[in-house]
């Protein structure tokens, strides 16, 4: 490919993940309590789903609650759980109408019965949709994901159905939460911090990273477009030289 065609071939991500951060600081800036920011953050979720639908993104993975977020004040955790329930009951029908397949990744066993039932119902309702896959990471941790996969393989070795030497990256990948999804292309973090916070550790290996100072409640379709434009001009080299991949 010559330099002219390289400059015209723009990259389009299939799988985008977002660390939706900055709700608390957004609220504080407005003189409000942190949970006000979480409620406002629902706007950002709607905008990013709508943008993904319009732009043919195949998978959108949203970090809604990390395995470490249980360590926040109990009241804040309570509001987040209630909000999760509220959003599920108000948005699922609309998602279904838009052919969205909703899935939740993470250890849902720690959630209350009502929330677990709501998650199961939403997943069942949208199971056969083949538009956007909306992956919600809830009580998710990247280390937990890798540990689960490791344990599943260790069990098979213990039973004698698997030899240690047979284990390779592809096999371990099959036991992680995103096994059946396209590779993660772009990871966006809002809110100004430049860290991964135990999100998709295994999957992030060759993802492109994009950090923005925009707080999550202000993350709208224009802000998403900026991230996509930034991604479009990158060169993904996977360890090779620029000349090899162009
Ligand atoms: C992200 O916003 C939402 C969750 C982690 C659930 P934060 O609540 O972390 O907002 P900041 O980072 O404190 O501003
Ligand atoms: C990461 O944000 C988790 C979610 C966005 C759900 P945090 O606000 O919890 O991350 P840290 O604590 O700043 O690393
Ligand atoms: Mg935060």
From TrEMBL:
What sort of enzyme, by top EC class, is this? Answer: transferase
Q: Name one GO biological process term.
A: polyprenol biosynthetic process
Q: Which reactions appear under catalytic activity for this entry?
A: 8 isopentenyl diphosphate + (2E,6E)-farnesyl diphosphate = di-trans,octa-cis-undecaprenyl diphosphate + 8 diphosphate
Signal peptide extent: none
Q: Name one GO molecular function term.
A: magnesium ion binding
* Catalytic center residues: 21, 69 (proton acceptor)
Q: What is its EC number?
A: 2.5.1.31
Task: Specify which residues bind Mg(2+) according to the UniProt entry for this protein.
Answer: 21, 208
Q: What do the Gene Ontology cellular component annotations say?
A: cytosol
- Family classification: Belongs to the UPP synthase family.
Its biological purpose is as follows: Catalyzes the sequential condensation of isopentenyl diphosphate (IPP) with (2E,6E)-farnesyl diphosphate (E,E-FPP) to yield (2Z,6Z,10Z,14Z,18Z,22Z,26Z,30Z,34E,38E)-undecaprenyl diphosphate (di-trans,octa-cis-UPP). UPP is the precursor of glycosyl carrier lipid in the biosynthesis of bacterial cell wall polysaccharide components such as peptidoglycan and lipopolysaccharide.
The name this protein goes by in its record: Ditrans,polycis-undecaprenyl-diphosphate synthase ((2E,6E)-farnesyl-diphosphate specific)
Species source reads: Paraglaciecola mesophila KMM 241
Name the gene that codes for it. Answer: uppS
């Amino acid at each position: 490919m010559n330099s002219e065609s390289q400059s015209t071939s723009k990259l389009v991500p299939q799988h985008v993940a977002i660390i939706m951060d900055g709700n608390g600081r957004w609220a504080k800036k407005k003189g409000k309590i942190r949970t006000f920011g979480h409620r406002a953050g629902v706007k950002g979720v709607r905008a990013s789903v709508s943008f993904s639908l319009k732009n043919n993104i195949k998978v959108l993975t949203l970090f809604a609650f990390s395995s470490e977020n249980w360590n926040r004040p109990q009241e804040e955790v309570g509001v987040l759980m209630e909000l999760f329930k509220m959003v599920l009951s108000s948005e699922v029908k609309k998602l279904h109408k838009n052919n969205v397949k909703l899935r939740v990744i993470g250890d849902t066993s720690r959630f209350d019965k009502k929330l677990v039932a709501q998650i199961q119902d939403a997943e069942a309702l949208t199971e056969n949709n083949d538009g956007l896959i909306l992956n919600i990471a809830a009580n998710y941790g990247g280390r937990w994901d890798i540990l689960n996969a490791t344990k599943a393989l260790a069990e098979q070795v213990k039973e004698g159905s698997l030899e240690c030497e047979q284990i390779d990256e592809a096999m371990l990948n099959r036991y992680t939460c995103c096994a059946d999804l396209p590779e993660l292309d772009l990871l966006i973090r809002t809110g100004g911090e430049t860290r991964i916070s135990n999100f998709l550790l295994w999957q992030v290996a060759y993802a492109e990273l994009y950090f923005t100072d925009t707080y999550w409640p202000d993350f709208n379709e224009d802000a998403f477009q900026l991230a996509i434009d930034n991604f479009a001009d990158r060169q993904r080299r996977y360890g090779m030289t620029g000349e090899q991949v162009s």
